[in-house]
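Minutes, project check-in

Agenda point 3 was the complex the collaborators sent over. CS summarized: two entities, 364 residues total, and the question is how they sit relative to each other. Sequences were read into the notes so everyone works from the same version.
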Amino acid sequence: MARTRRPFVLAEAVTLLANTPVTLDAMLRTLPDDWVAAHEGGETWSPHDVVGHLIHGERTDWVQRARVILEHGEAVPFDPFDRFAQFAASQGRTLASLLDEFAAARAQNLRELAALRLTDADLDRRGRHPALGVVTLRQLLATWVAHDLDHLVQISRVLAKLYSDEVGPWRAYLRIISGAQG
Amino acid sequence: MARTRRPFVLAEAVTLLANTPVTLDAMLRTLPDDWVAAHEGGETWSPHDVVGHLIHGERTDWVQRARVILEHGEAVPFDPFDRFAQFAASQGRTLASLLDEFAAARAQNLRELAALRLTDADLDRRGRHPALGVVTLRQLLATWVAHDLDHLVQISRVLAKLYSDEVGPWRAYLRIISGAQG
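CS then shared the predicted structure for the full assembly.
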């Protein structure tokens, strides 16, 4: 296989999913409040918002949808996911408490996932996304992984851009600040 | 100050710099070799390449350039940085050994930085970049931080894109895979 794609392997996905809370903790726990509340302007999200969003996903999305697929197949569409639930749920919470809650919720979900003892045949089972239509359990679990990484990209980008002015002429070399692809 | 910018504060920068080796360790140490050797095609870098690049920066770039500024000001330009040195230096090395070396080199550089006991006046001191011209010590140190974050973005993006096919229809919702801004 080319070095630009990996096939879905459940044990590998679980390794990546288990790494995310530890990674976020290492990146964020020691940062000043002004850094974790920073964002990219307008309605964009801060690191604090993102951790709240990830908690909401653990509570209502990934494993819950896996159960819907296993129990109902395509007959029952998933509940729509509320991308803005964290703004109420995280309000006034410290980042430390959100990181703790995310780590506990993720660990619990990985225990539940393990208890399902999914086979390759299970991974091919189909469910119905309310907007995207038919999806497989394998696609759902791959998306759980990629969604984590997408938000790690976002958090790193938000933090980097806070120094857009402070880096001076080096701005031209920093792809995330200059906006260059690479 | 707006939530989209932060002024350079040395203690905050040191916190961010100290977090990077722990973050990379959490993200990468447990991943299968095929994941850390993966890249975005062509001459793009793998996570393994990036860690090697960060080590080379610790050895030859940031603190060394700070010393050039403090000792020579604008009179002596920095040595150019070799962006490809890691391909020879990292060849055949395990990711675990690179992560260990990066953590040790970063810790040593942060000890050396602390020993300089930089004042605000020191941060205003100027040096000469071989291509960018006059830069300040403050800009150099801010760039050290933003450069770490730029590469955390890159590593997360490389990993996410490995599941571009596995996520199926969810591809449309994952900004890093779809290429959408957000």
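Noted in discussion: Residues 137-161 of chain A form the longest helix (25 residues).
Follow-up: revisit at the next meeting once the mutant set is ready.
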